Amino acid sequence: MPTPRFLTLDDVAEILNVSWSQAYALVRRKELIAIQIGGRGQWRVENEELERFIARKYAEARAGSVPPEPAADEPAGQDDAASTPGGRGRG
């Protein structure tokens, strides 16, 4: 059976190993292009679009646009309160 042209958000979530809500957030933020199909407006992502998204993410990682890991001598969790939702330091 040939690979389907369009994927559901469930399919996308499984492929990326994320939750459905995380896949939907990518679509909402227009990081991942999707279309709505049918009367209930079900989201569909073209297989090739998902592959382009993945390639873009790898290119960003290679270009160094991913935040660096903390230095080995920096205590782990130092910025946890400022970087987590509901933590101090976010306004």
Automatic annotation (TrEMBL):
Domain (Helix-turn-helix): residue spans on this chain: 6-57
Region annotation Disordered: where it falls in the sequence: 61-91
GO molecular function, one term: DNA binding
Alphabetical list of SUPFAM superfamilies matching this protein: Putative DNA-binding domain
Protein name: Transcriptional regulator, AlpA family
Organism the protein comes from: Geodermatophilus obscurus
Classification of source organism: Bacteria, Bacillati, Actinomycetota, Actinomycetes, Geodermatophilales
